[in-house]
Specification:
By secondary structure, the chain is of the alpha/beta class. It is 48% helix and 10% strand. It is built from 16 helices and ten strands. An eight-stranded parallel beta sheet has the order 1-2-3-4-6-8-9-10. The protein has a two-stranded antiparallel ribbon with strand order 5-7. Bound molecules: 6-deoxy-beta-L-fructofuranose and manganese (II) ion. 6-deoxy-beta-L-fructofuranose binds next to loops.
């Protein structure tokens, strides 16, 4: 963790300016009939989960360029994610990936407690071969033609549920890369039915209070067809499995220009929205920092979430899923978490009564302007005030750079080479 006095010193230098900005924004919002304290309270209560696998430098199939202080193991990753939460106050949970993060549950719990973190969904991994598993997932996993490989993949997912149960997780997140690269290589229907058979076995192993998240993705690593390729397939699978199965939306898993906020509205309407892997993208599954390419899209997703707040069973899991190839991974996670909270805060400011009236009156421009008014509002004083009141940093990035954490772990942890490519 970071020395609290360092955060105190950095905050002390910024508090007067923040107070002035917060008061000015409060006055402006009050003119719109909005109580800034009420918005701040909701922002303060909002938290997202960070992915353990994004604590280290990410890569592409071409290369990975690790920096100083790369995490050596899951415990370093939890320490690093602890710092992100300490400075942003907005990332109280960490999502693990197995087998990358396999460790004794009691050790994981102790390290998480040390960092004031809890565990969110557990991610299974049947898109890589495991050193301790005899069969290969080269031609798929849950949908593989060979029952023995499917059984191996099912057993791995059940192992993830067991570990997750012992560390307090309440969800299993399943993304499989299963698909094909050649027309004719796979029978689409037989392949999906094999996937469904496997998924039913996993579903049957879920504790009563758990959920299973089905994550769709258009392509990669398969480049012709993907078994769980789009939200429609994911929805059909979740409906086939049962009430504990829902659909996870990774923002980068769609073709460019797909209307993701409408997919979100559909999944909410039918009670099947599991939650999100937030990131941003311009072309493919770029896993860029949330809000860096299209912050308005992120805002529009949150606009749908606010519309649905209070709906029965509506409990979307908000997580980041990114690959930080050219930035300090912790700085990127802090900036991304802040952009997600910013989109939430801006969506809270939308005058929903006016919006509905404009929609019902087909006043397209005023409906758009009503949304934009929320998006155009600089909510930074609310975010910073919420952080300050939580003992976090008014300016997380500046405080991170001032505290010397990167240099410290750079000294403590051995340098690693960037052998080969790969996302982690
Ligand atoms: C697949 C994915 C999935 C994770 C992986 C690290 O692209 O989004 O959520 O398992 O990234
Ligand atoms: Mn994802």
């Amino acid at each position: 963790m970071i020395e609290p006095s360092v955060i105190g010193e950095e905050n002390a230098r910024r508090e007067a300016a923040l107070r002035a900005d917060y008061e000015a924004l409060g006055t402006r919002l009050a003119r719109d009939g909005i109580d800034i304290e009420a918005v701040k309270a909701k922002v303060a209560a909002f938290g997202i989960a960070v992915p353990s696998w994004a604590a280290g430098t990410g890569g592409t199939r071409f290369a990975r360029f690790p920096g100083p202080g790369e995490p050596r193991d899951v415990f370093d990753k939890i320490d690093d994610c602890g710092v992100v939460h300490q400075l942003t106050g907005a990332t109280p949970a960490i999502s693990l990936h197995i087998p990358w993060d396999r460790a004794a549950p009691e050790d994981l719990l102790a390290k998480a407690k040390e960092n004031d973190l809890v565990f969110d969904a557990v991610n299974s991994n049947t898109f890589q071969d495991h050193a301790d598993l005899p069969l290969s997932f080269r031609y798929g996993s849950l949908s593989h033609t060979d029952k023995a490989v499917r059984d191996q993949a099912v057993a791995h997912n059940i192992e993830c549920i067991e570990l997750g149960r012992r560390i307090g997780s309440k969800a299993l997140s399943i993304w499989v890369g299963d698909g094909s690269n050649f027309p004719g290589q796979a029978n689409f229907t037989r392949q999906l039915d094999r996937y469904l058979d496997s998924a039913r076995e996993i579903y049957a192993a879920l504790p009563d209070d758990w959920r299973v998240f089905i994550e769709h993705k258009m392509y990669e690593p398969a480049f012709y067809s993907t078994v769980v390729q789009d939200w429609g397939t994911s929805y059909l699978i979740a409906r086939e499995l049962g009430d504990k199965a829902q659909c996870l939306v990774d923002l980068g898993h769609h073709a460019p220009n797909v209307n993701i906020e409408m997919i979100v509205a559909r999944l909410i309407r039918f009670g099947k929205l599991a939650g999100f892997h937030f990131n941003d993208s311009k072309y493919g599954d770029d896993d860029l920092d949330a809000g860096v390419i299209d912050p308005y899209r992120l805002f529009l997703v949150f606009n749908e979430l606010i519309e649905a707040e209070g709906a029965p069973g509506f409990d979307p899991a908000c997580m980041l899923d990114e690959s930080h190839n050219v930035t300090d991974p912790l700085e990127s996670m802090m900036a991304s978490a802040t952009e997600v909270v910013r989109a939430y805060a801006q969506a809270l400011l939308v005058d929903r009564t006016a919006l509905l009236a404009h929609q019902e009156a087909n006043d397209a421009l005023m409906a758009s302007e009503t949304l934009k008014r929320g998006f155009r509002t600089d909510v930074e004083p609310i975010l910073a005030q919420a952080r300050l009141e939580k003992g976090a940093a008014i300016d997380p990035l500046a405080t991170f750079r001032a505290c010397g954490y990167r240099a410290r772990i750079g000294r403590e942890r051995p340098a690693v080479s960037g052998a080969g490519g790969g996302i982690v």
